[in-house]
Amino acid sequence: MYIPLLGRLSILEWPIIIISFLLTWIEYLISVITGILPSPIINLCTNTIQQIYKFTSNPIDLISSTVTSSSNVQEVKYKYLDSNSHPELTREKYELMTDLLNSSSIQEMCQLFGYDVENEIVRTDDGYFLTIQRILKNGQANKGGRVIYLHHGLLMNSEIWVTMLDKHSNLPFILYDLGYDVWLGNNRGNKYSQKHLYYKLNSEKFWDFSIDEFALFDIPNTINYILNTTKAEKLTYIGFSQGTAQAFASVSVNPDLNDKIDQIIAISPATTPHGLYSKFLDLLLKSSPNFVFLLFSRKVLMPSVILWGKIMYPPLFDTFIDISNYLLFNWKSINISKIQKLSSYAHLYSTTSVKTVAHWFQIILSKNFQMYHDSNSNFSGLNPISYPLQNIKVPINLLYGDCDSLVDINVMKNQLPAKYTKCQVVPNHEHLDNLWGFDVNKVVFNHVLHYLGHSLPDSIVENSEKTYLKTLDDIESVAEADAISQDLERHIYPGATRF
User: Fold this and answer.
1) What does DSSP say about strands 396-401 and 261-267: parallel, antiparallel, or unpaired?
2) I need a labelling partner for 449 at 20 to 30 A (CA). Which of 60, 97, 278, 455 fits?
3) Catalytic: which of 196, 429, 431, 447?
4) What InterPro entries does UniProt report for this protein, alphabetically (predicted)?
């Protein structure tokens, strides 16, 4: 295996590199050991943690039980344990939260709100099979309606669009009820797209893809499939995070897409992020993005997260997610309630390739939105190819939070064609807040509908106002962090304030 030049590291940086390898292998060993532990021991650990959480402030009591799925795999399911800890929230809200928490597919999630999905299979030109979903109600899609295509971000899948406890805080449901024909996309490698015509799932060849393959195959092939199925001439593309970068890259190298997309709405957009808040990872980036391969192999990135999500007591799992997001991105997540995190964080992670993350590290290091560059080459003077974003001739609407550490809006505006690009800042919002924040209807989706020529329906506005005002209280009383989170805030959130 090629090992990058390490001489650029100082003597003080070497201990951090060594610690990173140790932590990675410790995490791997713990995952292996946990995977072979019998269910009674796992349940004992879960129940012990649950009892500890009962003594924290504003605990959420969840009953855990082990069930055997249709595939004979034992899974831990949760149900809300009736308590007087949160009398201001309804029993129905808790039950919906636990139902979303336990849902194993987007179909189950949509059915909780009275909708359904129709799965369609797209075969890409390079042999991957992608599952995309079409929103239905009473078995019917809005055929003939204006077509909307929503695409998720890095380490995600289509489920991220439908995790909100308030039905009309889920963008696909708002759009469907307004008469749009709504489609949800999935990248190769995530839980809905793990099939190739020739490559086996556990092979390096299957996971040998980056943003380039999303742009060259997944996005254009999905768009062509949707347009062929609906017989529409154009569609509106709505992306979140990496889903926006994929659209920009795809349109820039597939000029025909300019005639197939009427506009791109980019929520928490990404092309050349500022970088990571973690000093440790910053050092790795300065040495070589290829360290990612040394740490995580050349296949799937951190598959053990799925295991931890299944066996770890959800409030503890959410705390670890919050800690990780802070250490990596300086996100404090104060706009997402504790109840909402339980249903959303359970669907936050989905698999992707290590190469995709290495590609992002190359972009961050170079401050250039470029194609993946094989730096294993021994030739000097070879430079990566930049995505020709100025070739885009589609109206672009950028929706970004002013507290989002991943968005370098000035660099992005310089990269995108000024003639077609408009920006809208969302005050006091971070990256994930634009999907799951308690005020997402008022400050994010209202803009999305405005770009589409609509305003938020009065019935939704009225309900949103009630939800907004109620959530202000909920964030104080319900989403108040437990003892672990409080300790976290005292030490690493010195500037954080709560609503």
Assistant:
1) parallel
2) 97
3) 431
4) AB_hydrolase_fold (IPR029058), AB_hydrolase_lipase (IPR006693)
